[in-house]
Write a structure and sequence with these properties.
It is built from four helices and four strands; from the N terminus they run H-H-E-E-H-H-E-E. Strands 2-1-3-4 form a four-stranded antiparallel sheet. Strand 1 and strand 2 form a beta hairpin. It is globular and about 50 Å long.
Length: 140
């Protein structure tokens, strides 16, 4: 019999990743698809909110997660002040960013099983005129 705690974790994971197979597994392709769907949702939310400030791409906007769960603009941008104000205290966007990051972390870990990743590696979401991109980059 499954414990209440195990059932709760299983429910949370299935909400994040989608449905598990009968044997409790989930295909990497399903996680990758979910990660890309959530990345697109993040970009749609961000672009909708940025339109309120008359900010559009190009130039691209590169976002990273900073201290205290706060998103930060990582690149130079002509609307940097407005973008900083938009990001400040935007917990909905920060939460969505974190969900996308977790999914891409799972994909990266599954694709590179056994590899240890540097703690100085940062997850980025780039908002571009061609669509969103997600990537990891080493910070020096």
């Amino acid at each position: 019999m499954m414990s209440l705690e195990t059932a709760s974790v299983s429910t949370s994971l299935s909400q994040l990743l989608g449905q598990f197979e009968d044997d409790g597994t989930i295909a990497l392709s399903a996680i990758r698809e979910k990660a890309n769907q959530e990345l697109s949702r993040f970009a749609e939310l961000a672009q909708k909110e940025l339109q309120q400030f008359d900010i559009s791409m190009p130039p691209a906007i590169s976002l990273i997660s900073g201290e205290h769960f706060q998103l930060k603009l990582e690149n130079a941008h002509p609307h940097a002040d407005e973008i900083h104000n938009w990001l400040d205290g935007n917990l909905i966007l920060a939460r969505k960013f974190k969900e996308v990051e977790v999914l891409f972390e799972l994909v990266r870990a599954a694709e590179s099983a056994g590899e240890v990743f540097s703690e100085s590696s940062n997850f980025h979401i780039g908002l571009t005129s061609a669509g969103p991109i997600a990537y990891f980059e080493e910070q020096h």
